[in-house]
Prior knowledge:
The complex is a heterodimer. Chain A is α+β, with helices and mostly antiparallel strands. Chain A is 52% helix and 10% strand. Chain A folds into 4 domains: 8-253, Transferase(Phosphotransferase) domain 1 (Transferase(Phosphotransferase), domain 1, Orthogonal Bundle); 268-423, no CATH class; 457-592, no CATH class; 618-649. Chain A has a 4-stranded antiparallel beta sheet. A 3-stranded antiparallel beta sheet of chain A has the order 5-6-7. A two-stranded antiparallel ribbon of chain A has the order 8-9. The N and C termini of chain A lie far apart (135 Å). Chain B has a domain at 17-122. Chain B is 75% helix and 0% strand. Chain B is built from 6 helices and no strands. Chain B has helices at residues 10-40, 42-51, 53-61, 67-91, 96-101, 103-153. In chain B, helix 1 (10-40) packs across helix 2 and helix 1 (10-40) packs antiparallel against helix 3 (53-61). At the A-B interface, helix 26 and helix 27 of A face helix 4 and helix 6 of B.
Amino acid sequence: MEFTTYGGDAYMAVDKERPGKDIYALIHHPTVPLRNDVYKSLRGRPVANLVNPLDRGLMTLDLQGGRKQRLVTIFERPTGGALFGPDGKVHPRVNTNKLRQNVVLSALKAIAAVHKRGFTHRSIKPTNLYFAAPDGDEICLGECYSSPAGYKQPFALEPLKLAVADETARGEGDLESDFYQLGATLQCLYFGEALWQGKDRSSLLMARVNQGSFWALAGGREIPGALGNLIRGLMADEEEERWNAEDILDWFEGVGKPKRTSMKAWSMNRPTNFKGVAYVDRRLLADAFARDPREAANFLKGLDFPAWVQLSFRDEILTERLESILNVVSGGGLGGVRPDDYKMVTRVCMFLHPNGPVHFKGHSFFLDGLPSALADAFAREDRDLIGVILDLFDEKFLNALSEVCSERNERFLSQVRMLRPVMIHGSSKQLGRGMERVLYALNPILPCVSQRFSNVWIGSIKQMMRAVDRLAEHGPLKNILLDRHIAAFCTAHGSDLERDFSKIAAAQNDPARLNGLTSEFFGMLQRRFKLEPLHHMTEKLVEGLGQSVKAIKNKKRRERVAALLEKVKKSGDVYKLTTELNISRIQVEDSREFAQARTAIMKLDREKARLTRKIQPGDPEARAKGLRGSRWVAFAVMVMIGFMTFMPA
Amino acid sequence: MAKKKKQATPMRMRRRMNQRQEMSAFGPLLVAGIIVIAIINLSAAGLAVVGLAPTIVLGLTGKGQYKSERLQCVGFMNFAGVLPFVGKVIDTPRDLVYIITDPINLATMFGASAIGYALVHVGPMVAAMILQSLSQERIKNINQQRQALIELWGAEVLGDKDAPDQEPGWAQGRR
């Protein structure tokens, strides 16, 4: 269906409450983060000329691979069809006049309203523009909430600055990028061609940098008249020169001044030869370095860097501080490329293209695009990319980059600051931390992507608890909390749970203890989130505690605990497992008392052995007691005789 | 080969001193007692010296453990044998010589001390018999306690040397 996006598959839907209302349903992919702020903004107050979300909720659907629970969003459905169909053909109703009169105005209304709400659209493309009705001229911009900003937007349809980044790591961008996308869209619609297709990235980049995006995409073809002026203005590569809403309104009134694009700011004073190509534009050179960082490292090490900077960038002064931050070490030796060399290349790329992405180890990221890049890496299980992002989480390195680009890219430092509390978890091997934690901390809206939950949508700890309860109905809960995704999801969405996971990780080789800790953890969550009785989970946990109960040595205690467990099992209250029946404490108490009982048995055995032998009159005890007794007898006899002697009467 | 003289350690010196004190305590007490009796009645003192001769001999020569118990046992019985004659001597002091030379009287006094000696020997025997019967009762009790513990904790509580730690590792603060 034409409304399908990278974030979800679109399906026809019928509104039973309001018959006649045109809607469609988008079934979201769990691995693609949503733009939740966009949903919240549009849900209550829809924007005109935009496909607005109406509602969303979890549904269990029959999909490929069985029944699965998915998030489904219902959108208003424009019924006129896409301006540029999935078949690669322009809608027959599209013509220059409509483009000039209706499309621009409708799109401008939507873009301006969206910008007023504080976010960008970043998904404007010919295939995402629709006629609102089959017979009207009103145009709607497609939805922009189901995937991150600029997510997998074609290279040609992204402004140059953002386009050089990886297609999943372009970040939020800025307001001007929407206008570029509108310009590129209008150009495609004017020529009736999918201009973003069939072009090699590096040659298109070269063309866009050298000739400007307008000419590069048009392939040298001119768009005559006012529309041409508008599109040229919108597609200006320099943000300062790009037309904005005000300029478009001026253009409508016929007072628009054509703006020219200049490429002077990015030109070097002397071309640099890298891999046989002479680069004059610093962005192109940065991109070339980024595509082959090994070769770039060798190139830079073989260079007299200060002299090269002096000759190539005469307008710039390479201060000692900047030189020390860039730290380009000449002379490679025989050791090949060292890990630090990649960072050196990144620093130089940042110096060359300060407001561009971070080019690191063959990838290019905007820091605010890291959440979506990481989500994509986890979805594809791209361990290399996850490793690259982890290597990027080096505070010293990021600080150096922010110093390099501080003059031209003020946002970079604030983005580093935002990353700081998250990236400390990245390198940790601890359960509940690591890159999984970074994933969920950077993408709070992302559901838990653990394999255990492939059939359910887990957006919160409450949902997770309910899902675990359902899972418990059919299978064991053994080791569920040792799953790194589940642990990371819990620690990212709950507070102060790291310590619990440390304990759980420490008990992973002790099944009885692990079971006890799992019960404690789920009980605590059930209490904290005031959840209803979770019967299946309780049943499984109680079953799991069977081993621990069997291990209790005191017969009476064992019977009492078993009876209590049976009672708790029926109640479905996991919390009671820990409060009324603290199995860990009971185990410790039992062990301690068992040790005392063993000591008592040993003492009794010793005592018995002592008492069993024949007691002789010569034994010290018998002798002492016998003599003491005899003494008393003698004393009594003496007293009696004395009495009889002196008191005869 | 000449016997090596034992070195005088502080412990040995203290023990020797205690022995000397025990030995010397009886003598002065005896002398003081006889003097006191002599002041009250000279004939009674004479009777005491003769009649309590076994006790005096034991007091002065007795050694080893339970000396005081033995002495008291013999002393009390000896005194019991002497007591009937003390009354006679106090009433008629002139009969002292007659009393102490009469073999029947002497046999009575010394016989009483012999009974004391007999008690010294018989007492431990009787005590051993009583203790033996008490032990049987105690063994019964121990068996009951032991059985109760085994029923509560199972046969495992009897344990063996190769049994694992009494408390799990984690409970002892180990991972």
